[in-house]
Amino acid sequence: MDIHELQKIVHKTRDVRRTQTLPKYSPAERDTLIKKYHPDHRESAYRPIKFGPNAGDRTVRELAALLEGESPVPADLDLTPDYTTDVLVVGGGGAGCAAALHAHANGAKVTLATKLRLGDSNTVMAQGGIQVAVTSDDSPVQHFLDTLKGGHMKNDHELLKVMVEDGPSIAKWLLDLGVLFDRDADGNLHVKKGGGSSKPRLLTCSDYTGLEIMRVLKDEVLNQKIPLLEFSAVVELLSDGNGTCTGAVLRDLDNKRLLVVAAKSVILATGGIGRLHIQGFPTSNHYGATGDGLALAYRLGAKLLQIDTFQYHPSGAVFPEQLIGALVTEGIRSEGGHLVNAKGERFVNELDTRDVVSSSIIRECEEGRGIRTMSGRVGVWLDTPLLDVEHGPGTVAKHFPAMVKQYERFGLDISKDPVLIYPTLHYQNGGVQIDVHGEANVRNLFVAGEASGGLHGRNRLMGNSLLDLMVFGKQTGTTAAIRTAKMPQGKLTLDHLARFRAEAKKHGVASAVMSPMVLPAYAKKE
Ligand code: MEZ
């Protein structure tokens, strides 16, 4: 059936749905639902890692293969440095820029390497806001408790305390740099409520918050004249042979040459892994999100944690085909948008946590209450026109200009017709284990943002990722700079690589997977 025919049920049932209040599930109901439908619980998608710091731990097959994969760097590479720096930041997104700026402000010589252009990252794709406890009836303690509950109590308390307590000063830093957060009629910062939060706490720039933050950070990196190596992918880390990180090997993507960087410390800010398309899921992530930092850190001996849990954002686009997996911000549900199945019914409290909402959508689709497109994809409706009905004409256009544009390009008006959505691979909940300074269990190897793990537990709340990367960009940049001021450059070796290759051989792993992946598997065919 034509999509416009299928949409009719949403318009027809709107008035009845508007009178309903859907209770949230009880803890026991949530657990049952998640265990039955959440992709984290599909056993066949998982396997144990064969060797390395997380030997025996279970993770998804795609990531296990990457962690056990083969380095592109030959053992006899000439390690004479092409560049020398105090702090090498790897990654040009929000965490990388924040780390570079703080390291620079603390007096370090900083070099920022990024495999695409400065700013190309998941940060620019974060739409719905950054969580910070700034209002008089909110507090970092409340923010802590909400995040802990959302993460199923599996969050690292120390990391979480640092994040929520530093939130207000981060917001001030961003405002001082020039980020244009939305304000109410009195000129106060406007706050919105996200799923799983007890208070409105999201600072927003319409539905392009990450893009606005990145605009300013990127500008500041350029203003401060921090040396950049763009289109330079880090493909291996270096150590002094005694477990301390001392630099990295880059591949210049233009001429394929390998370049050696001697660095007193390295900050990995490489982002997520959506482009591994775990379990065949589409993703909301940018083109470079291939989990490079995890593979690099793992080979050098860094321990990973909670790498069996991923966030499938409830609302990824299903139609039109050109938008498959693209994010449809949670902000629409925060403003009252209903999720509606093929029978015209709501089936979950739309502001429950993402793992619960995604599991409910998958349940509806698996039990035959999903809507099938002509190409065979399935999803449920997000009633976007309801926002104009509830809050007045023009609400969708005013609050979601980027989303309106995203669909307008394909002739669809989301203020008039609902959009079809299904969970999309959005975020890696776990990552490299770090301490409160963002340091891994490998000395002078720091990790900031999505590549690190522990802070969000088993389910991240909306808006906590933008705050995470600002806070831990600051922690890592500051610590790395202060420490390196007193340090000589360590020697450069690839000893860990020889050990890693011997381990692989011992476990019978002759990997065909080049690791890190750098660009998605399909990039080579495009
Ligand atoms: O933090 C996020 O993942 C986010 C803000 C996403 C969104 O729905 O807009």
Structural summary, described in words:
- With 526 residues, the protein is α/β, with parallel strands linked by helices.
- The protein has 15 helices and 20 strands.
- Strands 3, 4, 8, 9, 10, 11 and 19 form a seven-stranded mixed sheet that branches. Strands 13, 14, 15, 16 and 17 form a five-stranded antiparallel sheet that branches. It has a three-stranded antiparallel sheet with strand order 5-7-6.
- The chain is globular.
- It binds (2E)-2-methylbut-2-enedioic acid (MEZ).
- (2E)-2-methylbut-2-enedioic acid binds next to loops.
- The site of (2E)-2-methylbut-2-enedioic acid has 11 residues, from loops.
Termini Cα gap: 32 Å
| Total DSSP E strands | 20
Radius of gyration: 23 Å
Broad shape: globular
The computed structural class is alpha/beta
Quick summary of this structure?
Helices cover 33% and strands 17% of the residues. The protein has 526 residues and is of the alpha/beta class.
